[in-house]
């Protein structure tokens, strides 16, 4: 277990909100991707200040959305930002070994996985994703409300994990939900 946190959960939320504000007015990415930071993270390792669990949607790029550079965010992506043992293991690693004190489940507007859960009966492996989303949204048919319910469900799944619960108790780890609005770039913390 890492003894020294990178920053508190409250400080991490502030950094994310400030980075999103910077992103809203940017024309290009602004996170540090310099040779210096690449060499530093190679030599000293990573120290991300937040864990972002988000969708695989190509329009959702957490490093850009939060104006973060190399080594600042520990990003876990899966269509529909659903949670299973693989995501929980990744969160456990980042919180327990890298000192992250904040987990953000970042859903987004116009989510294809949520739309598929509402409007179709997919087959194959996609069904594993849509079945989990259906469990989260129940009978909700409004895409935005359904996406918010899906985020909240993922937050609850993370908080139910015994390992994550132990890390929360020991370190003050926080788990929060947020929605990225594709249409204007803003992030709304739920």
TrEMBL record:
GO MF annotation terms: carbonate dehydratase activity; zinc ion binding
Cofactor(s) needed for function: Zn(2+)
Pfam families noted in UniProt: Pro_CA
Family matches, as InterPro entries: Carbonic_anhydrase, Carbonic_anhydrase_CS, Carbonic_anhydrase_sf
Catalyzed chemical reaction(s): hydrogencarbonate + H(+) = CO2 + H2O
The keyword Lyase is assigned to this record: yes
Cofactor descriptive note: Binds 1 zinc ion per subunit.
EC class name: lyase
Entry keyword annotation includes Metal-binding: yes
SMART domains in the record: Pro_CA
Binding site for Zn(2+): 55, 57, 108, 111
Documented EC number(s): 4.2.1.1
Keyword list, A-Z: Lyase, Metal-binding, Zinc
One biological process term in Gene Ontology: carbon utilization
Similarity comment text for this entry: Belongs to the beta-class carbonic anhydrase family.
Protein name: carbonic anhydrase
Gene: cynT
